[in-house]
Write a structure and sequence with these properties.
single chain, 2 domains, PH-domain like
């Protein structure tokens, strides 16, 4: 298992003791083998096919910021801008893989990685474009949020199962970073 947890121990919400790394690994292995309450497949990320105009605008914005970085004598910033442009190109031009998601009595298994109920904080449903999303806030450092696309599963079915174990928010919970990203998306259109 990955070592991105906040510590070697994780608190179990129903009990007052801490689980050791070995106990957590055992629980994760058991969650992978647990019987599914509901399962579905979906892309591993939100994807929208982009036009040539989108890539031209990204390139022009990139060139403007690169020139600004050169004027300010920041050569490392040029490298960062080029890296961001490359990531934007890759994510916009390659379709995502399809992965399986399962909800079990022990937690959620997404893409073959188990997340126990004790590792989850809250959840809500959101929409991005035409996609319906299940967003789960976790207690882990990485990933701090699970974003799962719902194609063939109803929100009501998941709500009935998940709210027994995890706190439900009626609307999305936006962090300061989310608010800035939404603000920029509204003001700067690349399509």
């Amino acid at each position: 298992m990955s070592k991105f947890r906040r510590g070697d121990h994780e608190r179990v919400h129903h009990e007052e003791r801490l689980l050791s790394k070995e106990e957590l690994d055992t629980k994760h292995a058991a969650a992978l083998e647990a019987k599914s309450l509901i399962s579905w497949t979906s892309p591993d990320r939100v994807f929208k096919a982009r036009s040539k105009k989108y890539f031209v605008k990204v390139g022009l914005y990139g060139i403007i910021f690169i020139l600004l970085a050169i004027v300010l004598r920041e050569p490392f910033l040029v490298g960062v801008i080029l890296s961001v442009m490359f990531v934007v190109y890759v994510l916009a031009s390659h379709e995502p893989e399809t992965i399986e998601h399962r909800v079990t009595h022990m937690g959620i298994v997404s893409g073959g990685r188990p997340f126990l109920w004790s590792e989850m904080d809250s959840f809500w449903f959101d929409r991005r474009g035409d996609d319906h999303l299940l967003i789960v806030q976790t207690h882990l450092r990485f990933p701090s949020r699970l974003i799962i696309i719902l194609n063939s599963v109803s929100e009501r079915t998941l709500l009935d199962i998940l709210e027994k174990h995890v706190h439900y928010h009626e609307g999305p919970v936006h962090t300061l970073f989310d608010k800035w990203a939404n603000f920029l998306q509204e003001r700067i259109t690349l399509e």
